[in-house]
Amino acid sequence: MIVRDAEPEDAAEVARVHVRAWQVGYRGLLPDEYLGGLRLEDRTRRYTFGDTRPDQPATIVAVLDGRILGFATTGPSRDEDVPGSGEVYAIYVSPQTWGRGIGGTLLIEARARLLARGFTEAVLWVLAGNERAQRCYRADGWHRDGHRREEDVGGVPTEVVRHRRRLD
After folding, report:
1. What is the pLDDT of residue 48?
2. Which pLDDT score, from 0 to 100, does residue 34 have?
3. Contact, 70 vs 17, CB < 8 A?
4. Nearest CA to 42 among 59, 72, 22, 62?
5. Cβ neighbour number for residue 164 with a 10 Å cutoff
6. What are phi and psi of 93, to 5 degrees?
7. Strand segments (E) across the chain
8. 121-127 and 86-93 strand pairing
9. Beta strands at 143-153 and 156-166: parallel, antiparallel or unpaired
10. How buried is residue 121: exposed, middle or buried, by Cβ count under 10 Å (0-12/13-18/19+)?
11. pLDDT value of position 98
């Protein structure tokens, strides 16, 4: 498996991973009708890879045998109470490859890239109840820092919890 920067032509494959990971990983946490209504085309249009400005999100992909199996997106933290921190905005892996270390590999590379951009600490937000993801984050040294917020996902109020980690 290799991890590389996402390229504009990766958008559809990244969207496929994203949609499928949501549909499987968030089953029971988000309404079935919302998850069933996620469309690959809608998600594909959201991705614009290739912008290398430091204030913009950067996405990496995990590729095996020419197929994208997962991705992670990082950038500056959007949270005002942690100025100068980085953030893992998203990390998703194809459900059929869960448990093979792809998510852990992506997390390690995401942290390394944030550190290379000058960040010494990072945060990430995870849907409350997503125990699989939280186990993965804890195994990588992330911890809940006590911050929670409510977000609207498809018209449904959901709670997310913040995790934090030193990068150096």
Report:
1. 84
2. 92
3. yes
4. 22
5. 20
6. -130, 145
7. 2-5, 58-64, 67-76, 86-93, 121-127, 143-153, 156-166
8. parallel
9. antiparallel
10. middle
11. 94
- Which pLDDT score is estimated for 132? 92
Tokens of 146: 């006590």
Please report how the helices 131-139 and 102-116 are oriented relative to each other, as an axis angle in degrees rounded to 10. Answer: 60
Q: The tokens of 64 are what? A: 């095996």
Are 109 and 161 in contact by the 8 Å Cβ rule? The answer is no
Cβ–Cβ < 8 Å for 94, 17: yes
- Amino acid letter, residue 110: A
**What is the maximum span of the chain, computed from C-alpha positions, in angstroms?**
42
- Which residue do the tokens 């018209």 mark? 155
* Residue recorded with tokens 């449904």: 156
pLDDT in tens, 127-158: 999 999 999 999 999 999 999 999 998 788 99
Find the helix or strand (DSSP H, E) in which 22 lies: helix 11-25
pLDDT tens digits along 18-74: 999 999 999 999 999 999 999 999 989 888 898 888 888 999 999 999 999 999 999
Residue 4 has pLDDT above 90, yes or no: yes
Classify residue 73 by burial, with Cβ atoms within 10 Å: 0-12, 13-18, 19+. buried
